[in-house]
Design brief:
alpha/beta; TIM Barrel; Lyase, Ornithine Decarboxylase, Chain A, domain 1; 7-stranded mixed β-sheet; 7-stranded parallel β-sheet; disordered N terminus; Ala_racemase/Decarboxylase_C; pyridoxal phosphate binding; EC 5.1.1.1; pyridoxal phosphate
Length: 388
């Protein structure tokens, strides 16, 4: 049964009537997105990437919702995130992407977690820990096929076959990561697939994982054994050159704290970067960059100009930002809204409808990933969908 709940009773939670912004999170849409990705994964197991506090929506809420949908494997970036995920998913397989930090083997063992090993040093340490325990614990091996960020080089990966340390632990997964899977025609995709195929041939019998969210939708990509979607789960478009197959998961409303008229030739906000060329009505919202809304969304120019800047929806009307985003406040031009349709205390839409996370990111000169993962702690969080 679907229900609408808010985190009013959680420690540190903000009640809606005291919050400058209200973050709406649809757990049913999250689960539906996972099922859509599973159905496009060519029979491969579909995991879920829940790093960065499940892309801002909450590990403790997202992981159980995905588990109920059928997800059995999760990826996080940090060991602390894995421990949180384990607390709400006692039977799941949980991998930690950012490698094995020195001396953390006992913590992995205590919580039944799996490191993603990306260097010979990490492999040697994990093997040594397993030898000392006299137990072959599982881990993934990450080989870099083009990102030049984390992982063994391809030559190192090919040399793994002869490394004696591999006998001391279970290689549960061989993985790499696409560089540009969202660019369907990028030749690097094929180069990475070919490199990964060579690695699989050198290390036969190990479950393999390459596709991320966008990789699932690449033409001609092998599904391998496991796919690792992240951004698409949360409503981001994994196919930027096509319509978004995902449902929106996140919506954001901000509260109007004041309305005022600004006379012609007056400026709005810090440094006077936005000029009213005629009389304009300005609404001030109780949200700012301290809440994770990017300052790069600031509107710098003249009223009436088509600026690449932040936008809101107010009583159904698109209303642009006016001036710089400040720490706790955003000013918007609401002149287009009939005066009887807007008042102090109303909420306006910052994310929702046509203002998707991808569009909000574009207007801020960034990407939807950054919008999601910066979602602030001062918002009241209203979850739709069954929890617990």
């Amino acid at each position: 049964m679907t229900q609408l709940t808010s985190q009013h009773d959680a420690a540190g939670a903000v009640p809606e009537n005291a919050a400058g912004g209200i973050l709406h999170i649809d757990l049913d849409a999250l689960a539906s997105n996972w099922r859509t990705l599973r159905d496009n994964a060519g029979g491969a197991e579909t995991a879920a990437v829940v790093k960065a506090n499940a892309y801002g929506i909450g590990i403790e809420q997202a992981v159980p919702a995905l588990g109920r949908a059928g997800c059995r494997t999760f990826f996080v970036a940090h060991l602390s995130e894995a421990i949180r995920a384990r607390a709400v998913a006692p039977d799941a397989t949980i991998y930690v992407l950012n490698g094995l930090f020195a001396g953390t083997g006992p913590t992995y063992a205590a919580h039944n977690l799996r490191p993603v090993l990306g260097s010979f040093e990490e492999i040697e340490e994990w093997a040594g820990f397993c030898r000392a325990e006299n137990r072959k614990r599982p881990a993934a091996i990450h080989v870099d096929t083009g990102m030049n960020r984390l992982g063994l080089t391809v030559p190192q990966g090919l040399a793994l076959r002869d490394r004696p340390e591999r006998e001391d632990f279970e290689t549960a997964l061989l993985m790499s990561h696409f560089v540009s899977a969202e660019e369907s025609d990028n030749p690097l995709n094929r180069q990475q697939i070919e490199a990964f195929e060579a690695l699989r041939s050198s290390l036969p019998g190990i479950p393999a994982s390459l596709p991320n969210s966008s990789g699932i939708f690449l033409n001609g990509k092998p599904p391998y054994d496991l796919v690792r979607p992240g951004y698409a789960l949360y409503g981001g478009n994994p196919t930027p050159d096509r319509a978004n197959p995902m449902k929106p998961v996140v919506g954001l409303e901000a509260r109007i704290v004041q309305l005022r008229w600004v006379e012609a030739d007056h400026t709005v906000g810090y440094n006077g970067r936005w000029l009213a060329v005629e009389k304009r009505r300005i609404a001030t919202l109780s949200v700012g960059y301290a809440d994770g809304y990017p300052r790069s969304s600031s509107a710098r120019g003249r009223s009436g100009e088509d600026l690449l800047a932040g936008m809101t929806l107010v009583a159904g009307h698109p209303c642009p930002f006016a001036g710089n985003v400040s720490m706790d406040l955003i000013t918007i031009d609401v002149t287009a809204v009939p005066e009887n349709r807007i008042k102090r205390g109303d909420t306006v839409t910052l994310i929702g409808g046509d203002l998707t996370i991808d569009e909000v990111g574009r207007r801020a000169g960034t990407i939807g990933y950054e919008i999601l993962t910066n979602l602030g702690a001062r918002y009241a969080r209203a979850y739709r969908g069954v929890q617990g």
